[in-house]
Amino acid sequence: MKMKELLLFLSCVLCVSADGQHEDIGIIACSDSDGEMMYGLDGEEIGYADFNKQKFIYPQPPFVNPISYGEGAYGNAVAQLQICKQNLKVDQHDFRDIPLERNAPSAVMIYTRDEVKFGEKNTLICHVTGFYPAPVNVSWTKNGQKVTEESTINVPYPNKDGTFKQTSRLQFTPELGDVYSCTVQHLALTQSLTKIYDVQASSQSDPGVGPSVFCGVGLTVGLFGVAAGTFFLIKGNECS
Ligand SMILES: *[C@@H]1O[C@H](CO)[C@@H](O)[C@H](O)[C@H]1NC(C)=O
Prior knowledge:
single chain, 240 residues, Class II Histocompatibility Antigen, M Beta Chain, Chain B, domain 1, 5-stranded antiparallel sheet, 4 helices, 13 strands, elongated, disulfide bond
């Protein structure tokens, strides 16, 4: 009894400490033409400054407890961006002989948010990771036609190794015969990277009747074995 209590207590201590390790990040980054100010928690974007819309955006869905950085969040981001750009000018002068580090994306993945059901609204996701510097450009096509304007892309999120990841999303309704593509451009790539999403091919790779047929055959063979075993057992007993 005592041992059980001790184990329970220990596991509680462990779960509390595991629970207490959250990773809160804030990044401010800039280039000559671009900038980013973002707050993240445990790999998720909590809020970022949209310098085109001149607003601070909270991209989490409404069921997540809302976090707010207050009224001044956007103004603060603008001020930080200005400081970043000033520092960048100084750095560009002082480090002008040091070549820029460049890492091409290590992976590009295309997949759907939800299980594919024909005629039902879904989201195609193009996830790019492992690149430096940020950002990447992601463009989309549907049956060869550009549909990039209908897509969205989040701000670059840093990985633990100092590279970045970005995710672009495209609302779509899966229909047989439609083929989508997402194309990624990055400073370190001489040729863009393209991933294809073929609705038909993707639906065929779903596990259909195959496994259930095998399961049915397996069960039948198994039951036959039990019946045969029982038969011989009874026969054997009759003989003795
Ligand atoms: C991304 O797109 C912008 C605007 O079209 C362009 O200026 C920039 O060079 C592109 N970046 C890359 C890495 O291709």
